[in-house]
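Let's sit down with a protein and look at its sequence and fold side by side. We need material for that, and I hope you will provide a protein of your own picking. Once you have written the record down, we can walk along the chain together.

***
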Amino acid sequence: MPSRKFADGEVVMGRWPGSVLYYEVQVTSYDDVAHLYTVKYKDGTELALKESDIRSQSSFKHRKSQSSSSSPSRRSSSRSRSRSPGRPAKGRRRSASQSREHKEDKKKTIQESSIALPKPSENNTKRYNGEPESTEKNATSCIILEQKLKPDLEIKRVLEQYSLRSRKDDKKKEEIYSEKKTFVAVKPIEKVSTKTKEMEFGGRIGTFMLMLFLPATVFYLLLMCKQDDPSLLNFPPLPALESLWDWRAFGVILLWFFLQAVFYLLPIGKVVEGLPLSSGRRLQYRINGFYAFILTAAAIGVLLYFEFELHYLYDHLLQFAAAAAAFALALSVYLYVRSLRAPEEELAPGGNSGYFIYDFFTGHELNPRIGSFDLKYFCELRPGLMGWVVINLAMLLAEMKIHNLSVPSLSMILVNSFQLLYVVDALWNEEAVLTTMDITHDGFGFMLAFGDLVWVPFVYSLQAFYLVGHPTTISWPVAAAITALNCVGYYIFRSANSQKNNFRRNPADPKLANLKFIPTATGKGLLVTGWWGFVRHPNYLGDIIMALAWSLPCGFNHILPYFYVIYFICLLVHREARDEQHCRQKYGLAWERYCQRVPYRICPYIY
């Protein structure tokens, strides 16, 4: 047999994953290693299908039954005029024939509804994309759809019960019926992981430059905060390389990481399931981040009680950043080496290009685990976010010691309070991180390892570090206005995320019955009411407002404390572009319809 059956550009019939429906698709490419065809549906959706899920168009031409091909006159003329006493009456015989033909027509209609191809006309666009006739529905309409299809399925089972087929054929029909029920329940099955075709972040060259640029940026910002004049034109003197390394700081980083790992493994908190993987399997995660934060706060309180000088972090922050960067690099090497032995279905969709630099940066394996210990999920919230709070506290104590203050400055209190609220909110709503792009799409490599362990704790604490060397005095009315701004941003951020997460977890929740959404071919819905009908990423809008409120207590003498706002806007715009491309490929025409309904991406009337 040839290595492949269908050629590139050939129009065939492809089965939609998780159902028995076949649609007209065009073959775009073929993977010789995975033996998968990449096909394109008419709505623009691209999927990878096995050869067994593809059939030629000629196989869908139904043959006419023998009874329907002969005319009534031929049937009547072929019968004998003399009727046997054992035969039923003529009227009854004709009635039985009509009843039998009615059953056959009913059965044929139901069978055709399982595999028939909708006409590629404009009126069938919605049905072709796997959607009902209405473009919008609320969260309870999926149940109504199942109730409408239930009578047809029951008729089908009754007809098959009295058929003269063999038990082998009946078993095959039961499997098809089972697949039909799976399609009605709208449980999507993601496509199998294949090679990454489109590389982000500038490809191999861009990712290599980022691996050099990101650590250099961290050290540059920290050195600038130490300057008396932290203006952009006043470049700081470079320290000696040997002065950046401190084994004590490296030991503290290791101790901190493994202490958080011990808290993560404690059998407290509930265990939840994540979103389905490409294989349909769901991983389990223990939700105990908030408990780990309480234990961490208690440990820090014990250190302060015994007069441990926490402001030591301020004097050696460069050394701690260097130690954290070295640890993140070592962790990235381990992650890439172990990913070389990972099965194909466990690799990240965006980190399987085959190029070392690119896969090392973006992450080759999607969910690396040591037993039940999920490395990516652990690093996403635990060491970095809690380390951020500890560094902020150290800066507060350093400000009091250096400037001989009995209480911290109002600016320092605002920065610590705002960012503490953000971290506590993330840990309290820890389960929400399971639906983010970092967990569901991005692999765990240098990008996330460095970002979680170095960038978050040492760059996000830049405002507090700046205020130690450059104290800023603000009035109470100004502080009240900044607090109100932060509250507005937090409200948008939290309510939008809660709305999205609750809908993803249980779209049929009666509490969400008032929300309207656009159904998609994947079984998921795109919200068009609430915050997600206001802009496409309202959580990003809330994030940006809060970032501005964190920087305003530092005054306007220098742009350095506003680096976080500028960086965060660039980050969210880039992430929005990535999400836009991903959703366009995943949802097809449904996403186009959503973009027409919600035209603004992040900020209304601006972007």
User: Anything to note?
Assistant: Confidence is low (pLDDT under 50) at residues 62-103, 106-137, 139-193.
